[in-house]
Design brief:
- This protein is an alpha/beta fold.
- The chain has two domains: 3-123 and 282-300, NAD(P)-binding Rossmann-like Domain (Rossmann fold), CATH 3.40.50; 124-276 and 309-326, Dihydrodipicolinate Reductase, domain 2 (2-Layer Sandwich), CATH 3.30.360.10.
- The protein contains twelve helices and 15 strands.
- The protein has a nine-stranded mixed sheet. The chain has a six-stranded parallel sheet with strand order 3-2-1-4-5-6, with helices on both faces.
- Helix 4 runs parallel beside helix 5.
- It is globular and about 60 Å long.
Length: 327
């Protein structure tokens, strides 16, 4: 029997998940969706299927769900994840999972206490290029990674809530967090964070008080370094998400989760190209479905959402105080 899935949050990211559910008909079925705007939820249900709700608790009580995909903006979390966990419903929570560590840890604790499968929506990790590097790292092919660099460059006004730091957390928390997660995934938790950030390009835009230019240095006591930057002042309509890794025996340059050039640097230099079209949203949901069936943990557990959020929040604190933050 396919898993009965509900989506909370009927915006763009919710639509991406709905499309991914439709690609896995033998594994899951969208049976319900919920949001605050009745007309919007109704249109979402008409397009993707499922019963529309404007009350999340009512959806939990009535829809007999196996799993909920939480696609809310970060400011809108108000205990829904904890309620679903207590009801025994499996979870996929979009990043950033919260705007405070108190809320993030509450979510993780509720999931752990209930024994459900709970995952975080860091979909970059499901790309073929990222997976190839992960396999090489696990086998020792890359050698020890000593440097990670990454960027998230775009130029868009986004939704009103996105522009306000109090509701989005700022660009480092809401967008660059994907690259921060890859750095933490490859290098582990840093011992320190130093950041600078400012609003350079949008000072005249109403209610835009988020950072639109930032840089972060992740420090490791053994000498390894991560260097990340972001801007919302680059080329309009273009989303440049790039990252590079330097290991003892391999370097990797990635222009997307499915696109990368891996260069073997030990002995004769050899280059390996990865360039595919895998839908990471589909792969992510298939991984969670498998975890629910087998009882094994998902590839990206909800706890990873909290661990990466801690680094992003520390970067914001560092930028505000202009000091290095020890973790």
């Amino acid at each position: 029997m396919p898993l009965r899935v509900g989506i909370l949050g009927c915006g763009g990211i919710g639509a991406r998940h709905a499309g991914a559910i439709a690609a896995l008909p033998e594994q899951m079925q969208l049976v319900a969706c919920a949001g605050r705007d009745e007309a919007r939820v109704g249109e979402f249900a008409k397009k993707f299927g499922g019963t529309p709700y404007v009350d999340f608790q009512r959806m939990l009580d009535a829809a007999r769900l196996d799993m909920v995909i939480v696609a809310l903006p970060p400011f809108a979390h108000n205990g829904e994840v904890e309620n679903a966990a207590r009801a025994g419903v499996h979870l996929l929570v979009e990043k950033p999972i919260a705007l405070s560590m108190e809320r993030a840890e509450s979510m993780v604790r509720a999931a752990d206490d209930s024994g459900i499968v709970a995952a975080c929506g860091f979909m970059y990790r499901f790309g073929d290029a990222v997976a190839r590097w992960d396999a090489a790292a696990a086998s020792g092919e890359t050698g020890r990674v000593g440097l990670f660099t990454g960027q998230f460059h775009c130029n868009a006004l986004h939704a009103d809530w996105w522009r306000e730091r109090a509701r989005s957390g700022g660009q480092m928390v809401e967008q660059l967090i994907h690259i921060i997660d890859l750095a933490r995934h490859q290098l582990g938790r840093p011992q320190s964070v130093y950041a600078r950030a400012g609003n350079v390009f949008h000072r005249g835009v109403d209610r835009y008080d988020s950072d639109d230019t930032s840089a972060i240095v992740l420090g490791y006591d053994d000498g390894r370094v991560g260097v990340l930057n972001a801007t919302n002042g680059a080329v309009p309509g273009k989303w440049d998400k790039l990252w590079q890794l330097v290991g003892e025996r391999m370097t990797g340059r990635f222009t997307g989760w499915n696109s990368g050039v891996l260069t073997h640097t030990s002995g004769a230099v050899q280059t390996e190209l990865v360039d595919t079209q895998t839908d990471v949203f589909v792969t992510q949901l298939a991984d969670i479905a498998a975890a629910i069936r087998t009882g094994n943990p998902p590839r990206v557990p909800l706890a990873d959402g909290a661990k990466t959020l801690r680094i992003a929040l520390a970067a914001g604190q560092s930028a505000a105080k202009r000091v290095e933050i020890r973790l």
